[in-house]
Amino acid sequence: MIAMEILEWVAVILVLIGSIISVISAFGLIKLPDVYTRSHAATKSSTLAVMACLLGAFIYFWSHDGYVSIRLILGIIFVFITAPVAGHLICRAAYRSRVPLARNSGQDELKSILFDGDIAATTVQTIEKEKSEENQ
Amino acid sequence: MKETILLLALVFFMVAIALLLYRVIVGPSMPDRAIALDTIGVNLISAIAIVSIVLSTKAFLEAILILGILAFIGTIAFSKYIERGVIVDRNGDS
Fold first, then answer.
1. What is this structure's pTM?
2. Is there a contact between B26 and B56 (Cβ–Cβ < 8 Å)?
3. pLDDT digit string (tens) for A47-64?
4. Which residues of chain B lie closer than 8 angstroms to A126, CB-CB?
5. Mind listing the pLDDT tens digit for each residue in B17-75?
6. Residues A46, A92 within the same domain
7. Count of CB atoms within 10 A of residue A110's CB?
8. In this predicted complex, what is the ipTM?
9. Of B22, B32, B53, the CB nearest to A60
10. How many domains does chain B have?
11. How many pairs of residues across A and B have Cβ atoms under 8 Å apart?
């Protein structure tokens, strides 16, 4: 009985830790200067917050009701897999759509590789195609 | 005591969602808004988990899975739209 009580307290403390980490992540999203650093704050710490909270919920249901919830484990695994993928895709889209870096960021090694080659050529091609369509 | 701590955690998540709504509204570029919307979805998942603990029901646990899948697919769709749509906008500008 004491063990169940201790497990419930562990679950509640895990949920509280997750909520505090989530608030810290939201402050990071407010304070950081550009998209790339904001995605750093958004994906990592927010994933940790959700995983701590769902693990707390899982332990709580396990100790309080004796109910092992497969759905919560699936939710933990799903968030753990998909959050880094989503952050990477958003950063890729932001860089390809030329969202500027912060003013005091050091150097941009991808710029000479990415924008002197294919992407610039394709944008020029689409510009020319649209101009020809307008002329027609 | 446990209920109080859980409600305090729920209030923390609501504060986080309010701060993220600020970023959604005033965000300087579209990827900012997409990242903030993704994080709002992820925070709503944990808020639903806390609500289902407080109400001591298991009926909301499906909503966690559904909301996780919807947030992920929405973020993928936003990133695809941003990556292609801004090129069209740029042609309109120049």
1. 0.79
2. no
3. 999 999 999 999 998 888
4. 87-88, 91
5. 999 999 899 878 888 888 999 999 999 998 999 999 889 888 888 888 999 899 898 88
6. yes
7. 9
8. 0.81
9. B53
10. 1
11. 179
Q: What is the DSSP letter of A101?
A: P
| Token digits of residue A125 | 């091609």
Smallest CA-to-CA distance from A71 within A79, A46, B10, A52 is with: A79
B75: contact with A, CB 8 A cutoff: yes
Q: How many domains does chain A divide into?
A: 2
Q: Are B2 and A12 in contact (CB under 8 A)?
A: yes
Q: Are residues A48 and A98 in the same domain?
A: yes
- Residue A67: which of B46, B58, B94 has the nearest Cβ? B58
List the domain range (segments joined by +) for residue A37. 2-102
Q: Answer yes or no: do A97 and A112 share one domain.
A: no
On whether the CB atoms of residues A36 and A94 are closer than 8 A, the answer is: yes
